[in-house]
Amino acid sequence: MLTSEVKKLLVQIVGQENYKDSNEMRLVYSYDATPTFQSLPDAVISPRNKEEIQKILQLCNEQQIPIVPRGSGTNLCAGTCPTQGGIVLLFTHMDKILEIDEENLTATVQPGVITLDLINAVEERGLFYPPDPSSMKISTIGGNINENSGGLRGLKYGVTRDYVLGLEAVLPNGNIIRTGGKLAKDVAGYDLTRLFVGSEGTLGVVTEVLLKLVPMPETKSTMLVLYEDIDAAARSVSKIISNRIIPTTLEFLDKPTLEVVEDFAKIGLPTHANAVLLIEQDGPPEIVSRDMEKIAMVCREEQALSVEMAATEEEADALRTARRSALSALARMKPTTILEDATVPRSKISEMVRAINEIAAKYDLNICTFGHAGDGNLHPTCLTDARNEEEMERVEHAFAEIFDKAIALGGTITGEHGVGEMKSPYLEWKLGKEGVEAMKAIKQAFDPNNIMNPGKMFAKDSRKRVLV
Amino acid sequence: MANTQSLIEQLHRIVKDASRVIVDHESLVPFKSDYSSEGTTPLAVVFPITTKEASEILLLANQYKTPVFPRGRGTSLSGGPVPVVEGIIMDSTKWTSTLEIDPNNLIAVASPGVITADIDKAASKHGLMYPPDPSSLDIATIAGNVAENAGGPRGLKYGVTGDYVLGLEIVTPEGKVMKTGGKTMKNVTGYDLTGLITGSEGTLAVVSQVTLKLIPRPKETRTLSATFEDMTLAGNAVSAVLQNGLLPSKLEFIDQACIKAVEKFEPMDLPVFAEALLLAEVDGTGENVQKEIDEIALIFENFGGCVTVAKNETESNRLWKARKLVSPAIKALCSWKLSEDATVPVSQIPAMIKRLKTIGEKYNVPLVVFGHAGDGNLHPNLLLDKEDAGQLERAELAVKEIFQSALELGGTLSGEHGIGMLKSPFLKNEVGETGIDMMRRIKKAWDPNNILNPGKIFSADDNL
Ligand SMILES: Cc1cc2nc3c(=O)[nH]c(=O)nc-3n(C[C@H](O)[C@H](O)[C@H](O)COP(=O)(O)OP(=O)(O)OC[C@H]3O[C@@H](n4cnc5c(N)ncnc54)[C@H](O)[C@@H]3O)c2cc1C
Ligand SMILES: Cc1cc2nc3c(=O)[nH]c(=O)nc-3n(C[C@H](O)[C@H](O)[C@H](O)COP(=O)(O)OP(=O)(O)OC[C@H]3O[C@@H](n4cnc5c(N)ncnc54)[C@H](O)[C@@H]3O)c2cc1C
């Protein structure tokens, strides 16, 4: 609960219309896209500029009030669930594209800009902003940066981090820090830009972002490959890469996912196949056609049922959109959808897919798998019901086992969704005690009073590892 | 003294092989300096070859409160490995046991002392490439590259060392061993410690193993050179190439003084009459390479460039050798060389070149310019006479103005060489009080006794 005095001060800072603490508002911001996490904030505030954010943070730092920065709340790790109450900070007033610099190929934006709006704005100028999380229609750049989000184009173009040249942030003590610049290279001191990217709102509030753009690729080509054998699909992924071809996109969907997506999108997806790969390449026409031929050959060698090229851009776009809707489509099936994003070295993809299926069978669960196969980043998704306690317990065991397998294969527990509150108990599994301590030391250095998104990333207790 | 004695005994206990602990004065002297500056004679130089040894050395150093200076080949141009106070040099050049290429995952794993060029050579056997290519690649170590986040000519298209570091094994200043990142392409498990350690100049951790990303090796490369009668026009040509959406793999700038120096150092028929020389390399496959070469040639010609396309590999190798020789060649011309690497946004390259010319004239110091023009990273070098006090004073003012110009044009003090000891007094101008404060807090959190590479990045007036 905020005291009436604090409330008065906050209203003074942002104006009455930007301070909300009605029960409805608090309820709306009590959860995000992550299932099974809910907790009420004390207030929801929409600051209009960085100066207001400075004042809010100074006040909250003095009063030790938690701050939960929130973009669109589409994160899948309970990263914006206000589990310790406090203030949810929205960026609805800070949603402008400030500059697109065509000479230096950069964009300067505020954190509340919707990812797709930025992509469209730069494409109008013949430029390209590659990171395209499937949630891009609603997600914000501030959220993308704090989760270091990936997307369908990540295989070739990398993730959000690879496009952040600099940023401005308000620190918990109210100071403003600016990092990086419009530069291809910059090694002046520690790389605080990279430290902020993926920091999940735990180090400060990002108020401005400088992004790198690239020239638009000349052409693009898309194909869909069908498989009888899931293993063969996964093997194809590894083989394409070890043939030294890096396509733009290399996505995997298993049969249960396909069926659900087709039911949702109705574009005639082949639901008879046990697995499909969605593959795209972009660049100069000769290179694209040469690479696609080679990829097709590799897939056929792996006994693909069929290899179909999209004939038109509309057809290609329908396929991409279908893939992007996988999670939303799955979420319609059951009251609760629990999705993971364990990531393994790319050569281990087929082993990981096999392990997921075995684990699903062992715990008698309905797990569908899709994901950014080319990056080794899979999303095993469990369709379940949070009200069924007995089943939820099995789900938890199954996912613990999936994490364990991923780490054993040289992988990690999260490739793009972040740790948040949800995976914080597992952080130590991957990083070891020393790793967690080292990160905590950084958190402590930036935020000694622990007001920035408390409870995220670092758990009170680490989960005991069940050895299987 | 007694303390030093027992410290050295302890070092011998940790590193049993006597040849890997140096304590005699004469052998210690070369370790006072790097390529740019000189410090004090260290107490000892120790060459660990295992993580366990490195960890124990740091534990010991904490116990004795003795500084440790990590060192590779000492090619740093910012005083990075230089012992500014008495301490132990931890040299990783003998630590070369691992160099593995994993062709299925497009990954290389290397020990800290592995020479950078050896990694690319090993990768090329599998049709792969490790792109970062600092001009010192034949002598520098991979850990030194990681610690400096070194760049190179290919950085224009392929990025710098940091873009290829997937994971590290590190020993913290307090002797703890940990792994950051890993073999996966994506990883958001907690803060990006890999990114933090990269470029931290040996002040946050000793790097004990590096996991690197490799990429498919381009099938073909072609080189083209162009001479210009006017340096600023060459600068304009660089900007124009990039703004036309072309991305050569390399785009380097050499001014007349450097061309002449190389020609004197090793005669190879370079165009000594040109005011500037641009070298561009394009890579990819057949038709595309030709197309890009043609487009670049056209732009260069539009700015008055006289273009020659290298006919074969021998010819391209000669040009790139000339580029590589610039640094040693100009060093041979003077008793003291001040080497800068201020970096500006691409659109400001012509402005920066113009300003450098003016600064050299204004302070009456021999100022030569070469560098990775394509990414805005120029290397203005002052060729000085150690004995000429007046000139040294003017040089100091010139350097200040170079930094100021870079910052005014939206640039940075250092694009690739690092802050080290030489640029630390200027860091505040770029990152601000708050920036320094946060960096300092990180340093303190990790290294409470300030054991690891003290006196670097943070300026001497810091009371760390
Ligand atoms: C259907 C669906 C598909 C998805 N697909 C992908 C995908 O393909 N790839 C992928 O990586 N992720 C994906 N996600 C996850 C999610 O969309 C991303 O993590 C996204 O970046 C979150 O953006 P957001 O604006 O919703 O941020 P939020 O969820 O609101 O916040 C995310 C984190 O950022 C912090 N934050 C937000 N703004 C700021 C700020 N200004 N300053 C400091 N901290 C801030 C928050 O505190 C939180 O920790 C998907 C999610 C859904 C629901
Ligand atoms: C002729 C010449 C050309 C050059 N060209 C370029 C260029 O094109 N691009 C460029 O970026 N640089 C260039 N440099 C600078 C230099 O080569 C690089 O900075 C290189 O990365 C240094 O490597 P090194 O092995 O010599 O390391 P050193 O110079 O010995 O050390 C550099 C830094 O790394 C730290 N360090 C070394 N080993 C470790 C370890 N195991 N763990 C933690 N920290 C460690 C040191 O403490 C120091 O701060 C050039 C230098 C010369 C002399």
Automatic annotation (TrEMBL), chain A:
InterPro entries: FAD-bd_oxidored_4_C, FAD-bd_PCMH, FAD-bd_PCMH-like_sf, FAD-bd_PCMH_sub2, FAD-linked_Oxase-like_C, FAD-linked_OxidoTrans_Type4, GlcD, Oxid_FAD_bind_N
Organism of derivation: Exobacillus caeni
Family under the similarity heading: Belongs to the FAD-binding oxidoreductase/transferase type 4 family.
UniProt-recorded Gene Ontology molecular function terms: (S)-2-hydroxy-acid oxidase activity; FAD binding
UniProt entry tagged with the keyword Ligase: no
Signal peptide residue numbers: none
GO cellular component: glycolate oxidase complex
Alphabetic keyword roster: FAD, Flavoprotein, Oxidoreductase
Domain of life: Bacteria
Cofactor(s) it depends on: FAD
Protein name according to UniProt: Glycolate oxidase subunit GlcD
Domain FAD-binding PCMH-type: 37-216
Stored PROSITE patterns: FAD_PCMH
Automatic annotation (TrEMBL), chain B:
Keywords of this entry: FAD, Flavoprotein, Oxidoreductase
Keyword check for Oxidoreductase: yes
Name recorded for this polypeptide: FAD-binding protein
InterPro entries: FAD-bd_oxidored_4_C, FAD-bd_PCMH, FAD-bd_PCMH-like_sf, FAD-bd_PCMH_sub2, FAD-linked_Oxase-like_C, FAD-linked_OxidoTrans_Type4, Oxid_FAD_bind_N, Vanillyl_alc_oxidase_C-sub2
GO molecular function terms noted in the UniProt entry: FAD binding; oxidoreductase activity
The keyword Repeat is annotated on this UniProt entry: no
Family: Belongs to the FAD-binding oxidoreductase/transferase type 4 family.
Cofactor: FAD
FAD-binding PCMH-type domain: residues covered: 38-217
